[in-house]
User: Fold this.
Amino acid sequence: MSPFIDRNKNALRPTLARRSFLSSMGVVCASCLGTSLANEIEELPPGVEPSNPRELLYPTPEPSKELFTSESGSFAASYPMLQNVSETSASVSWALNVPSTGWVEWGTTPNLGKIARNSEFGLNPYEENFLSARITGLSPNTTYYYRTATCSFIYRTAYDKTISEPQFSDVYSFKTVGPNVDGVSFAVMNDTHNQVDTVRKHCERHEELGSDIVIWNGDLCHRYFFPLIAKTGIANPCDIPFAAQRPIVFVPGNHDKWGPYAHNLRECLTPWRQSDSRYYSLGHNYAFRLGPIAMITLDTGDTKPDNAVKQQGIASFDPYRELQATWLEHVLSRPDIAEAPYIVAFCHIPIFNPFDEAGIDQSSGLPWKTVEPTSARMWAPILAKHNITLVISAHLHRHSFSEATPERPWPQLLGGGPLAQNATCIHAEGNYEHLTVTAETLFERSVLGTWTFEPRA
Ligand SMILES: [Fe+2]
Assistant:
C-alpha cells in the first residue's frame, strides 16, 4: 500500500488537532460577542486596517498541511459536498490534503457501477485543493448512490509518476429534483463567516428538519486568502458530512468576493452549467423546480462600486448584474418556472432596505450599505412583473420580514447574522396548496415568524 493512503474508513475523520484548532476559534469568537454588529458589515474607514474588531470576530485560520490527516497520520480527503443537483445531473466536490486525482462512483443502488470523472483534453484531473466530478444522465425525482475515490499523485519526471491506491468515502445517497413531486422543503443559512458553532447548529437543525436542500445565502467565510479557508469554512466546517446527502446551493455574498482565493472558489463551489450559451459565464445563477417551488438564485456581488479606489481595478460587477437581469427575465419566462405555484428568489445583499433608521456604522461613520443599488434597480421590476412569491436575502445580520406593497409586490425576508445572538434558521415546506416559511433563532429555537403563501395566480 502507498505510504500516502490509509484505507481504513477512519481516514476520513479529521484529527483531534483540527478539532481543538476549531474550538480555539470558537473561544476567540465568544470573547468578542459584544462587538458592534455594525463593524461586521461595512468597509474599514481609511487608515484603519488590521486591528479592527472584525479581525477578532472572524479570525483567519493559518495554512496547514494537516487538515484532513487521519489519526494514523496518512493522507485523507474531506467529506464530499453535493451541489448543482438538477433533474438530470449533480456535481460533487471534495477537499484535498495533497495533490491528487480522483473520481466519483455512482449508480441507482449502493453497488454503484458507474464512474464520473472530470477529464479534460484527455487528462484526468490532477488538483492540489479540490477535486470535483459531474454526474449526468440522471432522471428527475430519483434516488442515486455515490462515493468519492481519491488517489494521491506524485509527478517526478514525465516518465516517473506515482499514483496511490484509491481512498474511498462512505457511500451516500441523494435525490434529484423535479416539478412533479408534492411535499418538498428547503432551509437557508447565511452569513456564517467561518463561525464553526453556528454552522454546526445549522447542520443539526437541517438534519432534524430533513430539509431537501440547503441554500447557503452568502458570506460563507469572511475572506479567502488561502485555499484552506474554503477547505475548513466550507467543505469541512464541523467534522460531519453535512452536504454529502443534502445538497447545498451556493449564493455568493460580498465577503465571498474578497481575497486571492475568491478568484478560485469555483474549485470548491462548482459553478452551475447554464444550458444557454448566452449565460455560460453565470455560474451561480440557478433556476430549478423543487416540486411546486421554482428556486432562483442571484449574485449581488461586492458592496463597493466597481470604480472604487479600494477595488484597484479587480471588479466588474455592474456588467455581471446586468447580464443576470437578462438571464432573470429569460428564466422567469421559461415554462417550468413561469408555471410554478411558487417562485422564491435568493440574493445575499437585500434589494429593498427594510429598515427606517439611518443605519450608520458607528466605527466608520459611514452609512450601512443596506441595499445593492444596481441589483435593486435592474432586478426588482423584473421580479414584480413575474409575480414572484418571496425574496430571501441576508447581509445585514438582522432578521426582518417586509410585507409586499403595491409598489413592491414581493415580500422580503432577511436571515440574521453569524453569532449566537443573531443567527437564524429559515426553513420552508411546500406543497401544491401552500408554501409555509418559518424564521427562528438558530440557537434558542424561538420562532420569529411564520408566513404562508398561496399558489401564484
Ligand atoms: Fe454580506
